Amino acid sequence: GAYTEMCEQARQAAYDLMLEHARELGANAVVGVAFDASEVAARASATEVLCYGTAVVLE
């Protein structure tokens, strides 16, 4: 449904932003990638999607 598609888009956007930040730091890889989501507004009207990992340089 529409909600599932919106969640997938938010997850992809978070992932893309993480990769962009890693590249800005000079990294060429990210390890230990994880996703997290949490409600940030009353009655679950908003959900925060996080994607995080460790930016590294692989030789």
How would you characterize this protein structure?
The chain has 59 residues and is of the alpha+beta class. It has one helix and two strands, in the order H-E-E. A two-stranded antiparallel sheet has the order 1-2. The longest helix has 23 residues, at 2-24. It is elongated and about 45 Å long. The protein starts with a helix and ends with a strand. The relative contact order is 0.25. The mean pLDDT is 92.
Summarize this, please?
The chain has one helix and two strands.
| Global structural class | alpha+beta
Q: State the end-to-end CA separation.
A: 43 Å
Tally of individual domains: 1
Alpha plus pi helix count: 1
Can you tell me the residue ranges where pLDDT is under 50 for at least 5 consecutive residues? none
What share of residues is helical?
25-40%
Question: Helix and strand succession?
Answer: HEE
Gyration radius, to the nearest Å? 14 Å
- The largest sheet has its strands arranged as 1-2
Rounded mean pLDDT is 92
Percentage of residues in DSSP E strands:
35-45%
The total strand number stands at 2
- Largest sheet: number of strands, sense, barrel closure: 2 strands, antiparallel
